[in-house]
Amino acid sequence: MTRIRDEDTEVENDIDNNSMLAAEPWRIRETAFDPASAFLHETLFTLGNGWIGLRGTPDEGTAGAAGRTLEGTYLNGFYDTEPIRYPENAYGLARVNEFMLNVPNAKRVAAVVDGERFALDSGRVVAYERTLDLKTGLVVRTVEWETRGGKRLRIASRRLVAFERKHVAALEYAVTPLNFAGTVRIVADIDADVTNLQAGDDPRVGSALTGAALIETGREIGARDVLLLQRTRHSGFTLATATECVVSGAPAVRVEPAGLGHAFEADLAEGATFTLHKYIAYASSRDMAPDACGPHARAELAAACAAGFDALAREQAAYLSGFWNEADVSIAGDDALQQGVRFNQFHLLQSVGRDGRTNIAAKGVTGEGYEGHYFWDTEIYVFPFFLFSRPEIARALLQYRYNGLPKARERARQMAHTKGALYPWRTIAGEECSAYFPAGTAQYHINADVAYSIRLYLLATDDFDFMAAQGAEIVLETARIWTGIGSYDRQGRFCINTVTGPDEYTAIVNNNTYTNAMARMHMTFAADVAERLRAERPADFARIAAAIGLDDAEIGAWRAASAAMLLPYDEALGIHAQDDSFLAKQPWDFANTPSENYPLLLHYHPLVIYRHQVCKQADVVLALLLLSNEFSLEDKRRDFDFYERVTTHDSSLSSCIFSIVANEIGDRRKAYDYFMETARLDLDNTHANTQYGVHTAAMAGTWLGVAYGFAGMRLDGAGLRFAPTLPDQWTGYRFKVQVRGALLDVAVDAAGTDYRLLRGERMSFAHGGTPIELDAQRAHIRMETSQ
Amino acid sequence: MTRIRDEDTEVENDIDNNSMLAAEPWRIRETAFDPASAFLHETLFTLGNGWIGLRGTPDEGTAGAAGRTLEGTYLNGFYDTEPIRYPENAYGLARVNEFMLNVPNAKRVAAVVDGERFALDSGRVVAYERTLDLKTGLVVRTVEWETRGGKRLRIASRRLVAFERKHVAALEYAVTPLNFAGTVRIVADIDADVTNLQAGDDPRVGSALTGAALIETGREIGARDVLLLQRTRHSGFTLATATECVVSGAPAVRVEPAGLGHAFEADLAEGATFTLHKYIAYASSRDMAPDACGPHARAELAAACAAGFDALAREQAAYLSGFWNEADVSIAGDDALQQGVRFNQFHLLQSVGRDGRTNIAAKGVTGEGYEGHYFWDTEIYVFPFFLFSRPEIARALLQYRYNGLPKARERARQMAHTKGALYPWRTIAGEECSAYFPAGTAQYHINADVAYSIRLYLLATDDFDFMAAQGAEIVLETARIWTGIGSYDRQGRFCINTVTGPDEYTAIVNNNTYTNAMARMHMTFAADVAERLRAERPADFARIAAAIGLDDAEIGAWRAASAAMLLPYDEALGIHAQDDSFLAKQPWDFANTPSENYPLLLHYHPLVIYRHQVCKQADVVLALLLLSNEFSLEDKRRDFDFYERVTTHDSSLSSCIFSIVANEIGDRRKAYDYFMETARLDLDNTHANTQYGVHTAAMAGTWLGVAYGFAGMRLDGAGLRFAPTLPDQWTGYRFKVQVRGALLDVAVDAAGTDYRLLRGERMSFAHGGTPIELDAQRAHIRMETSQ
Predict the structure, then answer these.
(1) Spatial CA neighbour of B623 closest among B588, B585, B582, B579
(2) ipTM of the assembly?
């Protein structure tokens, strides 16, 4: 089992990038089937709904060779466990890994003519097109295929994973004989012979699991329906996979069982179309009682069948129309970029859990990289996108952390904290799953990152009900860790020792600036929350304080520690030191590092990397963004200049942050260049590992790059503000922001910025320092764009 | 596989300490067989000769339950390999583990009467005594046993592992019917059904190996002899295990094959003694060609048989007489302590490799703890004992490091050093086997430790031939690492970042005082060696310089870095900081740490420990000893006082160093108390894990505690000197020191110290500051003992 974050992996030289994908604003379109890019495109064409994820493999099953394809079907947060074994053990190391399972492939369907089963790599593919339509949410594939005997067919399929029906997916498979009349067979079954990728020595892959993790506990095969019941080996969850097929377009269809499915056969006239609709449901005991999974899956199927595929497709389009109306980021003047931006938003929507028990994995539901784990990526990268476009999803993400509090408390005890809660660095169901603590558990900043997202949520929604119900308890319990691990030095400064900041090329240091600054924010916020709660909701305050044993002295200790927090600053250089010792280290010898030695982690021992002044990703620079009003513009300029020189951006979480801060300090060229490195990262496979899954944090970084970056949006104690600029390469861009129930449209072009209140009674914000208030009477204003 | 250093393990509450072992100055003696202490006593009664190690299990095979006994037979440095697998991988981590194998038990012999096989836990043991005699080197056991049928026998056995015959062990097994006449059978065979201990979740044990690691490649069973040939699974070594039996005392002995051995049967008169001598040889392809192992073992056996057991026993006694004459440390006034001190010296002699390819394992050849690995323990703890008593063995230990240079160069390249050599933190044949780099590979001080031992060797022997042949190359190649990892800070101070010092409760720090001070010594010594070599042996210098590409600039860089070396010092406290950040950390809360929470490593996550001011072992305090003349007495006092308060001595390498420095600063009570914690550590099983093997470093620490501690001996650039004191608890003590071929006897009593030149032309040294020179004319002087 090898779990290096897979942005750190070697370039896969034999995976083609997708220059063959046309730059279309609302679509991703393949016009030929190329085995060399199939693996990558399986990821790109993944469909999901926050729970189910179906990789974009062919309907007929994967066509590529082993290691060149991944028949992946995932359920966000549906996991098994395995013990973590260390070659040299120590107390308190993460003991159990949770990993997202590859579940049975229920979408398999294939046409058979004269005993020849259609596959993209057999017979002759005469014509081929596949489209992912970001407005309809469907993947549509049209193929013309000639059998070895010269019979030609058209096979047209459509696929969807229903946004409005958590447990349902559906597909349409239509076969038309083009130059013959005769028998056509369609086989539709469930492929339960699936396993997770094996790790071996390959650092790109997730799990050490060998063999099947799901044990069959029952199956029912009806006339046209199948119910498969399974149980996970260690975690003990039940999974029901159910399918039901409906055929049409042929006069007398013969049906016979075929494995976990059926074969449908009909005699067709030339030009007649034989259509199969397959409805799929997955239900698991993560959501319901084990015994309810089968019945629930059947009920969902029945409802889907009753509605029919076209109705599901209409539902899907309507859902997406609503989404794009409130979330779309449009960019004028660069279709490829526009495509990348929307593709990223679409995948975020497909990947994010909405039920309070699931979250958004580093790879969404598109692949097994990072084993389906959730990281701080959620709070710091993904959360703002949903907060400002789908706040109910943002709230569900916070609820997920609330549900994780009991395990975070347990973990805190294991880490010798007598009180408080420490969130796991990587997890599915709340267990710390990081098997390399120097770049895992040591990243205590996860606690502050969660608190930061709650602070942002409160600023954007004013939803103090949530605070009273859940948010305050998270913020208070997690804040306690800082006074637990921190201490005052002889100069009376509050220090936080022996942690790792966001930059994973530096580990186990003292006074990481990011961590200290975020901890200061966190403790101040915790004290504010406690006091506001006491004032406004005394009963809630009393209940929480009693439950967690909070007293005034502790609140006072947070204020004091915040006030005394040490942020290491180098007077000679005029910059914030990443940590106490960062500036004393030797600069990395970039001049003598060949390009093939990046990412460094794959070519240098951690000690070699840790010994040098070199960053994998934004660290201080991220603090400049998140705590924007705590740093002067001059600080930002100097810090940016310094850290840019020592940062490799080996992490996909880095470029978007540098783009945003470059915008703030007025470096338009760098802002644009860094943004472009993020926006099509997956579409262009620039990190060379998208075949194993998309990079959800970088996808969200694209949204951040537009809103926080080019539009200069910030929301903090100083209020909501914008400072839009327009890159020379674009003619304009536009996005929307939801704040406190109001929806604001922001449209920037060369001459100015239009702010339009689309919904809600009023919205107050600033434009480049000028306060603006829009309301029903004055719902629009145009401001000059700064240059 | 769990490889926490096993001094860090939990107290085994159910292993009895050996209060039943009488305090006798030259013997370890059991007077009853107690299953509860059998496991521990197996370790204590181990016999070895630096290559073979036979645990002190009964002749008949182990009698205890699984997990309560360990039938262990070891050959120092005879290992197999296994891949090291990490749950989260990174570049350059140790990839292959070398581990010492448990080899076939060739010493098994048992009496059988009426089909009843003698074992200590069956029938009735009427009388029992077992003695390890430190003068003869034999273990002698006498048992009277009664069968279930009431037949009583005396079984007397003697066992030895020949110091003068590397491949040979032998035993005598004599059976006497005491109350009957009749048939007695003696079965003597090889038990090849042995495996290493399995690790599981037990952190005390060494290896993840499952199943047998040795594959049989042949066997020859003769009339009274057996040859078993095996091959290791991965490392591919050949092992020949051979036995030959000679019986006497019975008129007509019937012989028949029995497994890998024979059964010898005779009809005995009451009171007649039937004696079997079993000669054993182990030969391996670590020492010779694979095909030669069998013939060599047979030849060794033939010679041993020809000599006979009594001759081997006489050889053994003669060898030990020579050893004790030159190495004995005697202490008057405390028999238990005297026993402990000699027991320790004896085990060191039994454990140390002498062939330049083997070294001394942390557990010697007495157990599998640390998998038979060699550590810095050799150079810093064990080496001085041999240097001053058996310098040829000390030289062989250095030769071992010379033979490890090619692998150390390879390792340096893996660690991104373009030149130089980096020794592995733990190894058998030179591969880095440390699977937890923060407390393994990060301990770069191993390089300086090796250089320190070479410097001491040169001071004690003046053997510059060795330097020209091997020593210089080691010192120069290893010194290069310091300029590789070190750098100058803005104040022009030479810094060494991102290393771990000796104290394993603090990891990955900058400017560890021990490391920096030792690196300074190392670079200065390297420059001195290079210049002396160039002056005295220009051809050797030219050869080495050409081979390793050494130039004057590099020598100059060592001088410069040494001169500019930063030793972190806290002016306010007046102490050396263990590293840049140690003093900024929170003190460990000792007051609220229950005693069962020691050793801390088994009860707190590494991050918790690393975050606090707490030491596992001597670190700065060790530097005060090793580089004694670089620190003032006042520095030593303050440093000792400070670090004593934060040191847990959870490592068995700690107390002896604190004892020595306590002596130097005049704290006689602490010097005595710390010494007593070391001297009987294994005999009294105070670390509660001696059942898994002795602690060779602590054993050597006992010698250091007498010579360096009570006698105040130092040898450095300022010459040899003593400053003896006498603990109130003793009436006197005496030890010998070999320097430059001369042998000095040092005898301390309440009134004074007698120095006596026993061999050699002259010896110069100082006594409490007074220079003394002894020679043939004036071979003795008595000096007043300081109080």
Answers:
(1) B579
(2) 0.93
